[in-house]
Amino acid sequence: QVQLVESGGGLVQAGGSLRLSCAASGRTFSSVDMGWFRQAPGKEREFVAAISRSGGSTVYADSVKGRCTISRDNVKATVYLQMNSLKPEDTAAYYCAATQRRLGMVSATSRDAYNYWGQGTQVTVSS
């Protein structure tokens, strides 16, 4: 079992930045691949970014590429999502997810690949 708790969401103006954190517990953090997803009202949950258990591989959705950076600290058992140049369309609840599976570049973007989820943190970007 893995428990995930997100934090760092809030209200920010367009062009601003936020750093989301996801603290994990319950399983050796270095044995899980991690991802960030988001869900806007009335829309499906969509992939944002993922990182391998070593931190050596990352993948991003086209919509955030160049503006977001995913990273992890295996000592602190925390994964981060640094978001810059935020846009109103980034407004959503952001969820971190974990899986014991070793994910590839394609599978890491699928919600079905992850079996542990946090409760989400809200990000609102005003125009």
Please give a structural write-up.
Strands 2, 4, 5, 6, 9, 10 and 11 form a seven-stranded mixed beta sheet that branches. With 127 residues, the protein is mainly β. 0% of the residues lie in helices and 48% in strands. The protein has no helices and eleven strands.
Chain-wise SSE layout:
Elements: E1 3-7, E2 10-13, E3 18-25, E4 33-39, E5 46-51, E6 58-60, E7 68-73, E8 78-83, E9 92-99, E10 116-117, E11 121-126
Parallel strand pairs: 2-11
Antiparallel strand pairs: 1-3, 3-8, 4-5, 4-9, 5-6, 7-8, 9-10, 9-11
- What is the number of E strands? 11
Low-confidence stretches: none
Mean pLDDT: 96
What would you call the shape?
globular
How large is the radius of gyration? 13 Å
Task: Tell me the structural class.
Answer: mainly beta
SSE sequence, one letter per element: EEEEEEEEEEE
Biggest sheet descriptor: 7 strands, mixed
Count of individual helical segments: 0
In terms of DSSP E residues, the strand content is: over 45%
Helix content: under 10%
How many angstroms separate the termini? 40 Å
